[in-house]
Design goal:
Its cofactor is Mg(2+). By secondary structure, the protein is an alpha+beta fold. It is built from 14 helices and 13 strands. The chain has a five-stranded mixed β-sheet with strand order 5-6-1-7-8. Strands 9, 10, 11, 12 and 13 form a five-stranded antiparallel β-sheet that branches.
């Protein structure tokens, strides 16, 4: 039985939401992102792309390329709410689906042709999403995730496309190689230097040659060029909260030590949010005194996963909560009301330098995590020396936690 994998993608999602909220923005060039000269473009309308604008570029450059564009700061919470509406519609209509990002979804319709026409069902579902969410959306339907994703890209804007079983190779053959997921600018340049511009060229090459030239990436690229992909749909389950607690080896009244501890826990949890592509809108702090009386305090905030936003809130909550002249046994930090989203979309006031800093820090943390003594390789200066604060793994994908050697806090 051939698989039937459906890929949905909300077209220019942030821009579409802004246009839904303000119809005067229709057909006008739109830039969503940091409004200052040092901000970053989070999303751009199709009207700006003919000028060479793309997401991720400095806002200053985008405004120079397209000076007539309307620049909008954007609101991560609003986008998350609209994404949730679409998620709920899809969940009601398919047996299993995967939420790949805030605006991208996969669904497995395999075997449903016995009862329904999969393409017809997908078409009806797309129309329902458009009708109930008010947002344009495109889909691709194919035998695997790779081809369905490429098909969605070809269907855009606001359209749909099916690649029937057995037609994967002819469908991909005439495309330029950068249309294959995993081929970025650097890989594309490497392939062009080798005289490879179109997918058909890779299809005609022996897999062994691709492996010799590009290693494992070459083998993976050959499989993708030939439309081969067995990656499964990962069922979507929304995690509502993450938390970290630490019981001190000995009850303490050292306020500075406790503040450093809650800072360190907030930093670790924020990192987990970013690696899990999650945002939080509710933060809380817990304190348990030596007499075992436990108190907590929470605060609603705008959706974020940024250290420099979350840590000050956590410190403020701790200062408000710690009001008894008594030794403390335990402190804890929790982030809840989680939604799917990339942290960059919520940092519209941030500079390109700050976004690059977060990406670099997260890369180092992911790759190296802890040194041989159990201390984090990379942390903010204010939390240096704080160890044993819990997992640096990803709690959203089943990754086992990486626990440093135990020390009494």
């Amino acid at each position: 039985m051939d698989r039937a994998i459906l890929h949905f993608d909300l077209d220019t999602f942030f821009v579409s939401v802004e246009r839904k909220l303000d119809s005067r923005l229709e057909k006008r060039p739109i830039l969503v992102g940091g409004t200052g000269d040092r901000g970053v473009v989070a999303a751009c309308s199709y009207e700006t792309r003919q000028f060479g604008v793309h997401s991720g570029m400095p806002m200053k450059m985008a405004r120079m390329l397209c000076p007539e564009a309307t620049v909008i700061r954007g609101n991560g919470e609003t986008y998350s709410q609209h994404s949730k509406v679409v998620s709920e519609i899809i969940a009601e209509n398919v047996p299993v689906f995967e939420k790949a990002s805030i605006d991208e979804f996969y669904a497995d319709l395999s075997g449903m042709d016995k009862y329904f026409n999969c393409y017809g069902m997908a078409s009806e579902l797309r129309q329902r999403i458009i009708r109930e969410s008010g947002l344009p959306i495109s889909f691709g339907l194919a035998t695997n995730k790779l081809v369905s994703k490429v098909a969605t890209g070809e269907a855009k804007p606001n359209n749909q496309l099916q690649v029937e079983a057995g037609r994967e190779k002819p469908f991909l053959a005439p495309m330029e190689v950068q249309k294959i997921p995993m081929v970025g600018e650097k890989m594309n340049q490497t392939l062009n230097n080798l005289g490879i511009r179109y997918v058909k060229t890779i299809q005609e090459m022996p897999m062994e040659i691709m492996g010799q030239v590009l290693g494992k990436n070459g083998v993976s690229l050959w499989n993708r060029a030939n439309g081969l992909d067995n990656s499964p749909i990962v069922p979507f389950h929304e995690r509502k909260s993450i938390s970290s607690e630490r019981t001190f080896g000995r009850d303490t009244g050292d306020v500075r030590k406790m503040r450093e501890m809650v800072r360190a826990m907030a930093e670790t949890l924020a990192f987990q949010l970013r690696t899990g592509e999650k945002l939080t809108s509710c933060v809380s702090v817990k304190i348990r005194y030596s007499d075992f009386n436990t108190f907590s305090k929470q605060l609603k905030i705008a959706y974020t996963s940024a250290d420099h936003v979350l840590i000050p809130h956590i410190e403020k909550l701790f200062d408000q909560l710690y009001n008894r002249r008594m030794m403390v046994r335990l402190v804890g930090v929790s982030f809840s009301d989680l939604v799917t989203g990339n942290y960059q979309i919520n940092l519209f006031d941030d500079t390109e330098e700050r976004l690059n800093l977060y990406q670099a820090m997260d890369y180092i943390k992911t790759k190296y995590a802890y040194n041989k003594d159990g201390d984090q390789i990379l942390t903010w200066a204010s939390t240096m020396g704080i160890s044993d604060i819990g997992s640096m793994g990803n709690p959203f994908n089943g990754e086992p936690p990486i626990i440093p050697a135990h020390r009494n806090a």
